[in-house]
What does this fold into?
Amino acid sequence: MRGTAVDPARPDSPLLTDRFGRVATDLRVSLTDRCNLRCTYCMPAEGLDWLPKPEVLTDEELARLIGIAVTRLGVTDIRFTGGEPLLRPGLVDVVAATAALAPRPRISMTTNGVSLARHAPALAAAGLDRVNVSLDTLDPIRFRTLTRRDRLGDVFDGMAAARAAGLTPVKVNSVLMRGVNEDEAVPLLRFCLERGYQLRFIEQMPLDPQHGWDRGDMVTAAEILAALRSAFELTPEPGERGGAPAERWLVDGGPAVVGVIASVTRPFCAACDRTRLTADGQVRNCLFSRTETDLRALLRGGASDEEIAERWRGNAWAKAAGHGINEAGFHQPDRPMSAIGG
Ligand code: SF4
It folds into this structure.
Protein backbone atom coordinates (compact mmCIF):
# COMPACT_ATOMS: atom_id res chain seq x y z
CA MET A 1 0.00 0.00 0.00
CA ARG A 2 1.51 3.36 -0.96
CA GLY A 3 0.31 6.74 0.31
CA THR A 4 -0.44 9.45 -2.15
CA ALA A 5 2.55 11.51 -0.88
CA VAL A 6 5.11 8.98 -2.21
CA ASP A 7 7.79 10.31 -4.56
CA PRO A 8 6.74 8.97 -7.99
CA ALA A 9 10.39 8.21 -8.73
CA ARG A 10 10.47 5.72 -5.88
CA PRO A 11 10.33 2.16 -7.23
CA ASP A 12 7.36 0.09 -6.06
CA SER A 13 9.62 -2.19 -4.02
CA PRO A 14 9.12 -3.63 -0.52
CA LEU A 15 12.80 -2.96 0.23
CA LEU A 16 14.47 0.04 1.90
CA THR A 17 15.76 1.63 -1.27
CA ASP A 18 17.09 5.17 -1.64
CA ARG A 19 17.53 7.66 -4.46
CA PHE A 20 21.15 6.56 -5.01
CA GLY A 21 20.28 2.93 -5.65
CA ARG A 22 21.38 1.69 -2.23
CA VAL A 23 19.30 -0.84 -0.31
CA ALA A 24 19.41 -0.99 3.50
CA THR A 25 19.56 -4.58 4.74
CA ASP A 26 21.52 -3.99 7.98
CA LEU A 27 19.46 -2.69 10.90
CA ARG A 28 21.24 -1.20 13.91
CA VAL A 29 18.99 -1.20 16.98
CA SER A 30 19.88 0.99 19.95
CA LEU A 31 18.37 -0.78 22.95
CA THR A 32 19.14 1.97 25.48
CA ASP A 33 20.96 5.29 25.71
CA ARG A 34 22.36 4.40 29.12
CA CYS A 35 25.87 3.15 29.75
CA ASN A 36 28.01 1.87 32.62
CA LEU A 37 31.14 3.57 31.32
CA ARG A 38 31.79 7.28 30.84
CA CYS A 39 34.15 7.43 27.88
CA THR A 40 35.53 10.95 27.58
CA TYR A 41 34.78 11.20 23.85
CA CYS A 42 31.22 9.96 24.30
CA MET A 43 29.73 11.47 27.45
CA PRO A 44 30.47 13.67 30.47
CA ALA A 45 31.37 12.15 33.85
CA GLU A 46 27.86 12.76 35.19
CA GLY A 47 26.27 10.98 32.25
CA LEU A 48 23.51 12.49 30.11
CA ASP A 49 19.81 13.16 30.56
CA TRP A 50 18.61 9.63 29.86
CA LEU A 51 15.50 8.97 27.79
CA PRO A 52 12.44 8.92 30.06
CA LYS A 53 11.26 5.30 30.49
CA PRO A 54 7.79 5.82 28.94
CA GLU A 55 9.50 7.05 25.75
CA VAL A 56 11.65 3.92 25.44
CA LEU A 57 10.21 1.10 23.33
CA THR A 58 9.01 -1.91 25.27
CA ASP A 59 10.42 -5.36 24.44
CA GLU A 60 7.19 -6.18 22.58
CA GLU A 61 7.34 -2.97 20.53
CA LEU A 62 10.99 -3.64 19.71
CA ALA A 63 10.23 -7.20 18.63
CA ARG A 64 7.37 -5.96 16.43
CA LEU A 65 9.51 -3.34 14.66
CA ILE A 66 12.38 -5.78 14.15
CA GLY A 67 9.82 -8.28 12.82
CA ILE A 68 8.51 -5.71 10.33
CA ALA A 69 12.07 -4.93 9.19
CA VAL A 70 12.90 -8.60 8.60
CA THR A 71 9.60 -9.86 7.17
CA ARG A 72 8.45 -6.82 5.17
CA LEU A 73 11.55 -4.71 4.42
CA GLY A 74 14.23 -7.25 3.47
CA VAL A 75 16.51 -6.65 6.46
CA THR A 76 18.98 -9.56 6.82
CA ASP A 77 21.29 -8.32 9.58
CA ILE A 78 20.41 -7.03 13.05
CA ARG A 79 23.05 -5.33 15.21
CA PHE A 80 22.10 -4.51 18.82
CA THR A 81 23.84 -1.44 20.21
CA GLY A 82 23.28 1.21 22.87
CA GLY A 83 24.51 3.10 24.95
CA GLU A 84 25.41 -0.25 26.41
CA PRO A 85 22.98 -2.99 25.21
CA LEU A 86 23.85 -5.36 28.08
CA LEU A 87 22.05 -2.91 30.40
CA ARG A 88 18.75 -3.74 28.69
CA PRO A 89 16.88 -6.04 31.16
CA GLY A 90 14.96 -7.98 28.46
CA LEU A 91 17.94 -8.38 26.12
CA VAL A 92 17.94 -12.20 26.07
CA ASP A 93 14.22 -12.29 25.19
CA VAL A 94 14.66 -9.65 22.47
CA VAL A 95 17.50 -11.70 20.96
CA ALA A 96 15.43 -14.90 21.15
CA ALA A 97 12.46 -13.20 19.46
CA THR A 98 14.75 -11.93 16.71
CA ALA A 99 16.33 -15.37 16.20
CA ALA A 100 12.84 -16.88 15.84
CA LEU A 101 12.06 -14.72 12.82
CA ALA A 102 11.82 -16.27 9.36
CA PRO A 103 13.96 -15.70 7.39
CA ARG A 104 16.38 -15.73 10.35
CA PRO A 105 18.57 -12.64 10.33
CA ARG A 106 22.24 -12.65 11.32
CA ILE A 107 22.39 -11.19 14.84
CA SER A 108 25.32 -9.34 16.35
CA MET A 109 25.90 -6.90 19.18
CA THR A 110 28.30 -4.03 19.90
CA THR A 111 29.17 -3.84 23.59
CA ASN A 112 31.76 -2.33 25.92
CA GLY A 113 32.24 -5.85 27.28
CA VAL A 114 32.10 -4.86 30.96
CA SER A 115 29.39 -7.40 31.90
CA LEU A 116 29.77 -9.68 28.87
CA ALA A 117 31.30 -12.56 30.84
CA ARG A 118 28.06 -12.86 32.81
CA HIS A 119 25.72 -12.67 29.81
CA ALA A 120 27.59 -14.43 26.98
CA PRO A 121 26.32 -18.02 27.51
CA ALA A 122 22.64 -17.00 27.74
CA LEU A 123 22.91 -14.67 24.72
CA ALA A 124 24.56 -17.38 22.63
CA ALA A 125 21.83 -19.83 23.64
CA ALA A 126 19.17 -17.23 22.70
CA GLY A 127 20.60 -16.92 19.19
CA LEU A 128 23.19 -14.15 19.24
CA ASP A 129 25.78 -14.97 16.54
CA ARG A 130 28.73 -12.72 17.37
CA VAL A 131 29.94 -9.61 19.18
CA ASN A 132 31.98 -6.47 18.63
CA VAL A 133 33.70 -5.24 21.78
CA SER A 134 34.91 -1.63 22.13
CA LEU A 135 38.47 -1.44 23.50
CA ASP A 136 40.74 1.59 23.07
CA THR A 137 43.64 0.67 25.35
CA LEU A 138 45.41 -2.27 27.06
CA ASP A 139 46.68 -0.05 29.90
CA PRO A 140 44.52 -0.17 33.07
CA ILE A 141 45.44 3.39 34.10
CA ARG A 142 44.72 4.79 30.66
CA PHE A 143 41.48 2.76 30.60
CA ARG A 144 40.41 4.40 33.84
CA THR A 145 41.28 7.84 32.45
CA LEU A 146 39.40 7.23 29.19
CA THR A 147 36.31 5.55 30.64
CA ARG A 148 36.29 6.92 34.19
CA ARG A 149 35.85 3.32 35.41
CA ASP A 150 38.31 0.64 36.58
CA ARG A 151 36.91 -2.25 34.50
CA LEU A 152 39.60 -3.29 31.99
CA GLY A 153 39.93 -6.76 33.52
CA ASP A 154 36.18 -7.30 33.14
CA VAL A 155 36.41 -6.37 29.45
CA PHE A 156 39.19 -8.91 28.91
CA ASP A 157 37.10 -11.55 30.72
CA GLY A 158 34.08 -10.63 28.60
CA MET A 159 35.97 -11.12 25.34
CA ALA A 160 37.28 -14.50 26.46
CA ALA A 161 33.78 -15.55 27.58
CA ALA A 162 32.31 -14.50 24.23
CA ARG A 163 34.86 -16.62 22.38
CA ALA A 164 34.21 -19.57 24.72
CA ALA A 165 30.45 -19.21 24.12
CA GLY A 166 31.00 -19.34 20.33
CA LEU A 167 30.09 -15.67 19.68
CA THR A 168 32.75 -15.57 16.98
CA PRO A 169 34.53 -13.94 15.33
CA VAL A 170 34.98 -11.68 18.35
CA LYS A 171 35.62 -8.31 16.74
CA VAL A 172 37.35 -5.46 18.58
CA ASN A 173 36.60 -1.79 17.82
CA SER A 174 39.33 0.70 18.73
CA VAL A 175 39.29 4.48 18.44
CA LEU A 176 42.75 6.09 18.41
CA MET A 177 43.06 9.69 19.57
CA ARG A 178 46.09 11.97 19.11
CA GLY A 179 48.06 12.41 22.31
CA VAL A 180 45.90 9.87 24.10
CA ASN A 181 46.38 6.31 22.81
CA GLU A 182 47.73 6.49 19.26
CA ASP A 183 50.89 4.69 20.52
CA GLU A 184 48.82 1.53 21.06
CA ALA A 185 48.07 0.64 17.44
CA VAL A 186 50.71 -2.11 17.30
CA PRO A 187 50.17 -3.49 20.86
CA LEU A 188 46.40 -3.67 20.26
CA LEU A 189 46.90 -5.64 17.06
CA ARG A 190 49.41 -7.96 18.68
CA PHE A 191 46.99 -8.53 21.59
CA CYS A 192 44.16 -9.44 19.19
CA LEU A 193 46.32 -11.65 16.95
CA GLU A 194 47.47 -13.67 19.97
CA ARG A 195 43.84 -14.30 21.00
CA GLY A 196 42.19 -14.74 17.62
CA TYR A 197 40.16 -11.52 17.86
CA GLN A 198 39.53 -9.41 14.74
CA LEU A 199 40.67 -5.82 15.32
CA ARG A 200 39.20 -2.79 13.53
CA PHE A 201 40.36 0.76 14.08
CA ILE A 202 37.67 3.43 13.71
CA GLU A 203 38.42 7.05 12.85
CA GLN A 204 36.91 9.27 15.56
CA MET A 205 33.70 10.85 14.26
CA PRO A 206 31.94 14.12 15.17
CA LEU A 207 29.22 12.59 17.35
CA ASP A 208 30.15 13.67 20.87
CA PRO A 209 27.48 15.42 22.97
CA GLN A 210 29.79 18.39 23.63
CA HIS A 211 30.22 18.96 19.86
CA GLY A 212 33.93 19.33 20.56
CA TRP A 213 35.23 17.05 17.79
CA ASP A 214 38.40 18.40 16.17
CA ARG A 215 39.65 16.90 12.90
CA GLY A 216 43.22 17.57 14.06
CA ASP A 217 42.79 15.26 17.05
CA MET A 218 41.58 12.43 14.85
CA VAL A 219 44.18 9.79 13.95
CA THR A 220 43.61 9.11 10.28
CA ALA A 221 43.46 5.76 8.50
CA ALA A 222 46.71 6.60 6.72
CA GLU A 223 48.46 7.22 10.05
CA ILE A 224 47.06 4.02 11.56
CA LEU A 225 48.25 1.95 8.59
CA ALA A 226 51.67 3.57 8.71
CA ALA A 227 51.97 2.71 12.40
CA LEU A 228 50.94 -0.89 11.81
CA ARG A 229 53.32 -1.26 8.88
CA SER A 230 56.20 -0.49 11.24
CA ALA A 231 55.66 -3.95 12.74
CA PHE A 232 53.54 -5.96 10.29
CA GLU A 233 53.28 -6.61 6.57
CA LEU A 234 49.80 -5.59 5.40
CA THR A 235 48.28 -6.69 2.07
CA PRO A 236 44.73 -5.88 0.93
CA GLU A 237 42.34 -8.73 1.62
CA PRO A 238 41.10 -10.16 -1.69
CA GLY A 239 37.39 -10.19 -2.48
CA GLU A 240 34.46 -7.78 -2.57
CA ARG A 241 33.99 -5.33 0.29
CA GLY A 242 30.33 -4.64 -0.44
CA GLY A 243 28.67 -2.42 2.18
CA ALA A 244 31.09 -3.42 4.92
CA PRO A 245 32.42 -0.32 6.75
CA ALA A 246 35.91 -1.75 7.29
CA GLU A 247 38.70 -1.88 4.73
CA ARG A 248 40.58 -5.10 5.57
CA TRP A 249 44.21 -6.19 5.30
CA LEU A 250 45.88 -9.55 5.66
CA VAL A 251 48.46 -9.37 8.44
CA ASP A 252 51.81 -10.94 7.54
CA GLY A 253 50.20 -12.83 4.68
CA GLY A 254 47.09 -13.85 6.67
CA PRO A 255 44.81 -15.52 7.46
CA ALA A 256 44.55 -12.98 10.28
CA VAL A 257 43.14 -9.65 9.20
CA VAL A 258 42.99 -6.11 10.54
CA GLY A 259 40.38 -3.54 9.56
CA VAL A 260 40.20 0.23 9.39
CA ILE A 261 36.86 2.09 9.34
CA ALA A 262 37.82 5.40 7.76
CA SER A 263 34.46 7.18 8.00
CA VAL A 264 35.99 10.65 7.70
CA THR A 265 39.00 10.40 5.39
CA ARG A 266 37.75 7.53 3.16
CA PRO A 267 33.94 7.64 3.42
CA PHE A 268 32.08 4.49 2.30
CA CYS A 269 28.63 6.04 2.12
CA ALA A 270 28.21 5.13 -1.58
CA ALA A 271 27.79 1.49 -0.58
CA CYS A 272 25.96 2.08 2.72
CA ASP A 273 23.38 -0.61 3.58
CA ARG A 274 22.42 0.60 7.07
CA THR A 275 19.25 1.83 8.71
CA ARG A 276 18.97 2.64 12.42
CA LEU A 277 16.30 2.39 15.09
CA THR A 278 16.74 4.37 18.29
CA ALA A 279 15.65 3.17 21.73
CA ASP A 280 12.78 5.66 21.63
CA GLY A 281 11.44 4.37 18.31
CA GLN A 282 12.87 6.83 15.79
CA VAL A 283 14.26 5.64 12.46
CA ARG A 284 17.43 7.26 11.14
CA ASN A 285 18.60 6.59 7.58
CA CYS A 286 22.15 7.68 8.45
CA LEU A 287 24.34 7.96 11.54
CA PHE A 288 24.64 11.68 10.75
CA SER A 289 21.05 12.28 9.73
CA ARG A 290 19.61 15.47 11.20
CA THR A 291 16.04 14.20 10.76
CA GLU A 292 14.26 11.11 12.08
CA THR A 293 10.97 9.35 11.46
CA ASP A 294 8.81 8.58 14.48
CA LEU A 295 7.64 4.96 14.37
CA ARG A 296 6.76 4.87 18.08
CA ALA A 297 3.83 7.24 17.55
CA LEU A 298 2.57 5.02 14.73
CA LEU A 299 2.99 1.92 16.87
CA ARG A 300 1.17 3.40 19.84
CA GLY A 301 -1.38 5.03 17.54
CA GLY A 302 -2.65 1.69 16.23
CA ALA A 303 -0.99 1.69 12.80
CA SER A 304 -0.78 -1.57 10.87
CA ASP A 305 2.52 -3.31 10.14
CA GLU A 306 2.28 -2.26 6.50
CA GLU A 307 1.65 1.39 7.41
CA ILE A 308 4.75 1.31 9.60
CA ALA A 309 6.75 -0.44 6.88
CA GLU A 310 5.68 2.16 4.34
CA ARG A 311 6.76 5.04 6.59
CA TRP A 312 10.11 3.29 7.06
CA ARG A 313 10.53 3.00 3.28
CA GLY A 314 9.85 6.71 2.99
CA ASN A 315 12.59 7.43 5.50
CA ALA A 316 15.07 5.30 3.56
CA TRP A 317 14.19 6.93 0.26
CA ALA A 318 15.04 10.37 1.66
CA LYS A 319 18.58 9.33 2.63
CA ALA A 320 21.34 11.75 1.68
CA ALA A 321 24.21 10.67 -0.55
CA GLY A 322 26.62 10.72 2.39
CA HIS A 323 27.41 12.08 5.86
CA GLY A 324 28.66 15.45 4.64
CA ILE A 325 31.41 15.69 7.26
CA ASN A 326 33.90 16.93 4.66
CA GLU A 327 31.49 19.47 3.21
CA ALA A 328 31.13 23.14 4.13
CA GLY A 329 28.13 23.72 6.38
CA PHE A 330 28.31 20.28 8.01
CA HIS A 331 26.38 20.14 11.28
CA GLN A 332 26.66 17.14 13.53
CA PRO A 333 23.34 15.64 14.63
CA ASP A 334 21.77 16.86 17.89
CA ARG A 335 21.33 13.31 19.11
CA PRO A 336 24.59 12.06 20.68
CA MET A 337 26.29 8.82 19.62
CA SER A 338 25.20 7.13 22.86
CA ALA A 339 21.56 7.58 21.83
CA ILE A 340 22.09 6.52 18.19
CA GLY A 341 24.29 3.46 18.55
CA GLY A 342 27.23 2.23 16.44
S1 SF4 B 1 27.73 8.01 7.45
FE1 SF4 B 1 25.61 7.54 6.98
S2 SF4 B 1 25.54 7.13 4.78
FE2 SF4 B 1 27.66 7.08 5.42
S3 SF4 B 1 28.10 4.95 5.83
FE3 SF4 B 1 27.50 5.85 7.80
S4 SF4 B 1 25.31 5.58 7.97
FE4 SF4 B 1 25.89 5.20 5.84
